[in-house]
Write a structure and sequence with these properties.
heterodimer; A: 114 residues; mainly beta; seven-stranded mixed beta sheet; four-stranded antiparallel beta sheet; B: 110 residues; six-stranded mixed beta sheet; five-stranded antiparallel beta sheet; 11 strands; 55% strand; globular
């Protein structure tokens, strides 16, 4: 079974703090994604990566950066957290092989910025 | 306009009935489609995917794809209270990204 894990289920941070969210997958997937999900707005793609050290902006990259130094790990960084970044953050991974496109999600991190 | 649109719902069905969820897409290049179920406070989990025209059945779930009309649907037969969740439709048009619909919330009344 595909397993995607995220470093924290719940996180509370102060405005202006630098925040790191980590995601690890154990299925050797090439692609990894970071989304945020807010009521009424659905899933919105922040960044994705299709290979180590490669990244592309999604629909809402402002205020975020990412890092992918190893194939299994994809980190989302909030350089200076703001209250409008309070949200559920979801990491996902997918393969370019058979069943390509199928994204498997981690459990999510609910971030609150005070 | 979003690439993938879902009938907004919410949808309420009695236990044992069929729940019908619909999704339309704008990108004719979309190659495959996915249905995810998301329980409140949880992350999306894959129910099934479909890439050929016609029906695909998996247990109580049937996905239908009509590329000419650009719609995808999901039928849940013999609906159970445990099927109460938000269902997300997604389409893939390249090697990487999925475009997700906003979701349809289904409530199954016991």
């Amino acid at each position: 079974d595909v397993k995607v894990t995220q470093s924290s289920r719940y996180l509370v941070k102060r405005t202006g703090e630098k925040v790191f969210l980590e995601c690890v997958q154990d299925m050797d997937h090439e692609n990894m994604f970071w989304y945020r999900q807010d009521p009424g707005l659905g899933l919105r793609l922040i960044y994705f990566s299709y290979d180590v050290k490669m990244k592309e902006k999604g629909d809402i990259p402002e205020g975020y950066s990412v890092s992918r130094e190893k194939k299994e790990r994809f980190s989302l960084i909030l350089e200076s957290a703001s209250t409008n970044q309070t949200s559920m953050y979801l990491c996902a991974s997918s393969s370019r092989g058979p069943f390509k496109g199928t994204q498997y999600f981690g459990p999510g991190t609910r971030l609150t910025v005070l | 306009q979003k690439e993938v649109e879902q009938n907004s719902g919410p949808l309420s069905v009695p236990e044992g009935a069929i729940a019908s969820l619909n999704c339309t897409y704008s990108d004719r290049g979309s190659q495959s489609f996915f249905w995810y179920r998301q329980y409140s406070g949880k992350s999306p989990e894959l129910i099934m995917f479909i890439y050929s025209n016609g029906d695909k059945e998996d247990g109580r779930f049937t996905a239908q794809l009509n590329k000419a009309s650009q719609y995808v649907s999901l039928l849940i037969r013999d609906s159970q209270p445990s099927d109460s969740a938000t269902y997300l439709c997604a389409g893939r048009s390249n090697d990487y990204k999925l475009s997700f619909g906003a979701g349809t919330t289904v409530t199954v009344r016991a």
